[in-house]
Write a structure and sequence with these properties.
Protein name: Phosphoenolpyruvate-protein phosphotransferase
Bound molecules: phosphoenolpyruvate, magnesium ion
Subcellular location: Cytoplasm
GO biological process, one term: phosphoenolpyruvate-dependent sugar phosphotransferase system
Oligomer: single chain
Family: Belongs to the PEP-utilizing enzyme family.
Strand order of the largest sheet: 1-8-7-3-4-5-6-2
CATH class of the largest domain: Alpha Beta
Largest sheet: 8 strands, mixed
Number of helices: 23
Structural class: alpha/beta
Helix content: 40-55%
Number of strands: 16
CATH topology of the largest domain: TIM Barrel
Strand content: 5-15%
Distance between the termini: 26 Å
Cofactor: Mg(2+)
CATH superfamily of the largest domain: Phosphoenolpyruvate-binding domains
């Protein structure tokens, strides 16, 4: 049995599909140039066909935007420069095709990587990916093709890249990876596909081979290899119980989120784009508490134009049928890059030039987004929030730009809603501590615990080495949250939360007791949270929350909540 991080809830038992990349060993040989060029042309054709095949199979599940990674690979495979450099080398040095491919690929990768620009770094990744396929084809090595999985399987991998997750089909019943955390790319993808995932599970690759039976318990974050019959049955029972609970929760879809003693809160969903709106509504979401607009930018090869953005926001606002939609302005930087924008080279990008810091400097980018948002505002109930606010001045500067953009549009004769709320993410401890002052200017807060925890504990949220410090229940984190909510309420403003903590069943009682007004989470967590809210008394949770604030450790808090609240 191996321990990992439960990143997407559920339980599965299925055969292992071990994602192993072939070991490519290149030897330099002298060869007949003509024969080697012929071999190269054939391998290149096969490579193009392979990528097309993967794309075609992936297209059954993915949008055009999500398929872009394959287009980039096809473009690279068809690049005449790459082919001619390799052929020239075969010709002039009479070397074997795989050796020439390896040398040219290494040179190209080094050249792109040395350019210190995100766009070229991605091209380097494309060259690596495509030439890896090419070398495997030249050597007759088999490349794993996830789209070809045609029986129920659990994928075990060191990590899953965006192009891997783009290939998952309906036979994939879950995955376990050696690296990653709760908020890594693969975890977010598993949640949106609604398949169980355990990530940050060191040693899992060595423990399995393809064809083994794996029990993946992504409720408790464990995997078990080749369990005995009785254990398999126990996991299957657990999977059934979980599926049954999911089914039972469905009756809560159109119910209000109200405690036993009549205190009502709002349960909303986090989205990355229009395609997630249906999931929020289907799961009884009362609004969108976080629209991460950076995906619009990341899935494009240019800064999305005002019109492109307008369409995207309009679609979401209309889709949510008048329910509140909180749109976060561009939160780029840290680990999120754009192929067409050069970020400065920094020692600590998570503490660097990102999000609102960038938007206040690059005001054209910011104004374009705000114009698009203001234009879309008449199609629903729009709230705008700024990410990574650290000082009151930053918030006021950002808000002033918003006001200016709004005035500009009105003077152009464009209609803008007059009830747009303008708030901020509280995800930097400085903002949480000074919340009462921020609340004089912001219409609302949304607490981003993913970052708030990493900055409070000084623990990189992406690193499994320090994942033990990612402690939502640490009383110091709870006190920052309590102070934020108190600060909002002192000025008659509302406080929500859109970090992963908002959807944790053990956290809901505490947050409720601290007075949180809105909880925004993955769509699939909403109904469970509603069940928890409906089972609690607000008055009792106020006392419970105060007790939690006075504990010393996260473990004590969790134990206390579990002893008081039955789930
Ligand atoms: C957060 O920091 O909690 C948050 C919701 O934002 P993101 O995860 O996109 O950084
Ligand atoms: Mg954040």
């Amino acid at each position: 049995m191996l321990k990992g991080i439960a990143a997407s809830a559920g339980v599965s038992v299925a055969k292992v599909y071990k994602l192993e990349t072939p070991n490519v060993v290149i030897e330099k040989k002298q060869g007949d140039a003509e024969a080697e060029i012929k071999k190269f042309d054939e391998a290149l054709e096969k490579t193009k066909k392979d990528i097309e095949g993967v794309k075609e199979r992936a297209a059954k599940r993915l949008s055009e935007e999500e398929l872009a990674v394959f287009d980039a690979h096809l473009m690279m495979a068809g690049d005449p420069e790459l082919a001619s450099q390799i052929k020239n080398m075969i010709q002039s040095e009479s070397v074997n095709a795989e050796y020439a491919t390896d040398v040219v690929a290494t040179q190209m990768v080094e050249m792109f990587e040395s350019m210190d620009n995100e766009y070229f770094k991605e091209r380097a990744a494309d060259v690596k990916d495509v030439t890896f396929r090419l070398k495997c084809n030249l050597l007759g090595l088999l490349i794993p093709d996830l789209t070809s999985i045609d029986e129920d399987s659990i994928i075990v991998a060191h990590d899953l890249t965006p192009s891997d997750t783009a290939q998952l089909n309906e036979y994939v019943k879950g995955f376990a990876t050696e690296i990653g955390g709760k908020t890594s790319h693969s975890a977010i993808m598993a949640n949106s596909l609604e398949i169980p995932a355990v990530v940050g599970c060191p040693g899992v690759m060595d423990a399995v081979k393809t064809g083994d039976v794996l029990a993946l318990d992504a409720l408790d974050g464990v995997v078990e290899v080749n369990p005995d019959e009785a254990t398999i049955q126990a996991y299957q029972e657990k999977a059934k119980a979980y599926a049954k609970e999911k089914e039972e929760l469905k009756v809560l879809v159109s119910e209000k989120s109200v405690t036993k003693d009549g205190h009502e809160v709002e349960l909303a969903g986090n989205i990355g784009g229009f395609k997630d709106v249906e999931g929020v509504l289907k799961n009884g979401g009362e609004g969108v508490g976080l629209f991460r607009t950076e995906f619009l930018y990341m899935n494009s090869d240019h800064f999305p134009t005002e019109d492109e953005q307008f369409e995207a926001y309009k679609q979401v606002l209309e889709g949510m049928q008048g329910k509140r939609v909180v749109v976060r302005t561009l939160d780029i930087g840290g680990d999120k890059h754009l192929s067409y924008y050069e970020f400065p080279n920094e020692m600590n990008p998570f503490l660097g030039y990102r999000a609102i810091r960038l938007c206040l400097k690059e005001q054209d980018i910011f104004r374009t987004q705000l114009r698009a948002l203001c234009r879309a505002s008449v199609y629903g109930r729009l709230c705008i929030m700024f990410p990574m606010i650290a000082t009151v001045k930053e918030f006021c500067d950002a808000k002033a730009i918003f006001e200016d953009v709004k005035k500009e549009l009105i003077s152009e004769g464009v209609q803008v809603a007059d009830n747009i709320e303008v708030g901020m993410m509280v995800e930097i401890p400085a903002a949480a501590v000074l919340a009462d002052q921020f609340a004089k200017y912001a219409d609302f807060f949304s607490i981003g615990t993913n970052d708030l925890i990493q900055y409070s504990m000084a623990a990189d949220r992406m690193s499994e080495h320090v994942s033990y410090l990612y402690q939502p229940y640490n009383p110091s984190v709870l006190r920052l949250i309590a102070n934020t909510i108190k600060g909002a309420h002192s000025q008659g403003k509302w406080a929500g939360m859109c970090g992963a903590m908002a959807g944790e069943p053990n956290a809901v009682p505490i947050l409720l007791g601290l007075g949180l007004d809105e909880f925004s989470m993955s769509a699939t967590q909403i109904l469970k949270a509603r069940k928890v809210v409906k089972s609690l008394s607000y008055e009792e949770m106020k006392d419970l929350a105060q007790e939690c604030l006075n504990k010393q450790t996260a473990e004590e808090v969790l134990e206390y909540v579990q002893s008081k609240v039955e789930q």
